[in-house]
Amino acid sequence: MSSNRYFQLDVFAQRPGGGNPLGVVVGADHWSESAMQSFAAWTNIVETTFLLRPDSIEASYRLRIFTPSRELAFAGHPSIGSAHVALLSGFASPRDGVLIQECQAGLLPVRVEGDAEHRRLYIQAPKATVLKTGVDEKSLLGTTLKKVRLGKLPPAFVEGGRRWWLAELANEATLRAWHPDHAAIRKIALDSDSLGLCVFARSDEPGHEIVLRAFPAGVGIVEDPASGAANGLVAAYIAEAEPDGPLARGYTVSQGREIGHDAKLVLRIDEDATVWVGGQTQTVISGDVRWPHEN
After folding, report:
1. Reported pTM
2. DSSP the chain
3. What is the set of domains in the chain, with CATH numbers?
4. Least-confidence region, from 82-86, 198-202, 219-223, 262-266
C-alpha cells in the first residue's frame, strides 16, 4: 500500500482554530472514487479534497471535494485550502499570480497574493443566479423567518455552484443571538434541493462590514464556521440588489463566533459583478496517509 502526502488545514483563519477544517490528499490520481469517499467518511471532517493532475491544459490541477457522505461540485473553503496545499507541496505553481482550479463547477481562477504565512488566496466564485426573491409567509421558510427580525433585502433563493436560501437579518446583535429551528431548516433544504439557509447582517463593528451564519442542513451540518460558497452567493446578491451601495465592490465578513470559531473572509466584487472569495489558511498537520486505493 503506497502513501500520499496529507495535510489538515484551518481555512479562513488568522490563527489555528479560528476557521474551517479541511483535509487534503495530494496526488490521488490512482485512488478510486469509492476510496476517496470512504477516506472522507473516515476523517469525518466537514470536507476532504483530493488534488489530481488536470484534464484541461489550461488548469493547474484538478480537484475533487467530498463530505463524509457525498461529493460536491464546488465549495469555497476546500478550494482555498486545496490551492494553499498545491502551492505548499509544489504540486502546482501560479502563472502571473494565478492558479486555475479544475473541478465539477468548471475552470475557476485562484488569485495568489503574498507568500508564506502572509499568503492570501482568492477563488473566483461560480456565476450566481437569483432564482427567486421574497418568500410565502405561509411556507415553512416564511414561518421560520417570522421568528426573527429581517433586514432591508428580501429573502432570496440563489444558485451558483450550489443553491442556498439567503436572508438578511436586522442587525448583528439579532443575527448572533438567533436560535433557529434546525429541523425546519433541514426540511427546507431537502424540499428545495439546496444546502440550507444562510443569514447575514450589516455591522458597524470594527474589522468587518458583514456578519454571517450558514446552516447547511442539506448535507447534515448544523452550522458551518466559515462558508466560502455561501459568502460568494451573498456577495453576488448584494451587488445585484445594491449596485451603487457601499458593499457593491466588496467587504470583510465575520463568521463562526457563535460556535467557538472566529473566521475572517474577504469578498471582492469586480465591476462586471465577478465575485472573489478570499482569506488566509493555516497548516495544522502535515504528514502521509496510507489508505486502500481501490475501496
Report:
1. 0.94
2. --EEEEEEEEET-SSTTSSEEEEEEES-TT--HHHHHHHHHHH--S-EEEEE--SSTT-SEEEEEE-SS-EES--HHHHHHHHHHHHHTTS---BTTEEEEEETTEEEEEEEES-GGG-EEEEEPPPPEEEEES--TTSHHHHHHTTS-B-SSPPEEEEESEEEEEEEBS-HHHHHH----HHHHHHHHHHHTS--EEEEEE--STT-SEEEEEE-GGGT-S-BS--HHHHHHHHHHHHHH-TTSTTTTEEEEEE-GGGT--EEEEEEE-TT--EEEEE-EEEEEEEEEE--TT-
3. 3-125+280-290 (3.10.310.10), 129-273 (3.10.310.10)
4. 219-223
